[in-house]
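Journal club side-thread
Mid-discussion, someone asked how the predicted structure for our own chain would compare to the paper's figures. Pasting it here so we can look after the session.
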Amino acid sequence: MGLFGLWRKKKVTYKLVKDGKATYIGTTNNPKRRNVEHSKSGKKYDYLQVTSSRVSKSEAERRETRNLRSYKKATGKRPTYNKTSDGKFKFKKKY
């Protein structure tokens, strides 16, 4: 794996912004691709804003969690498109 491969393994945190407010907070290794995915999924937002430099996956996840907690503390709710307030999806067990 060359330098490009190592660089791609790093992640950034980002948020989707609509009317100056975050509607989604997340992490990705490819903001351009993620922007297209969000757009195609029908999310309504003005732009995707990268909020960190490239860091390890675990550090990006810690930052995402911290950003979500800060958002919830400031507004009393999670961003519109986030599924849970801590950034982690909770899957129902199938029996």
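Post-session note: The chain has a mean pLDDT of 86.
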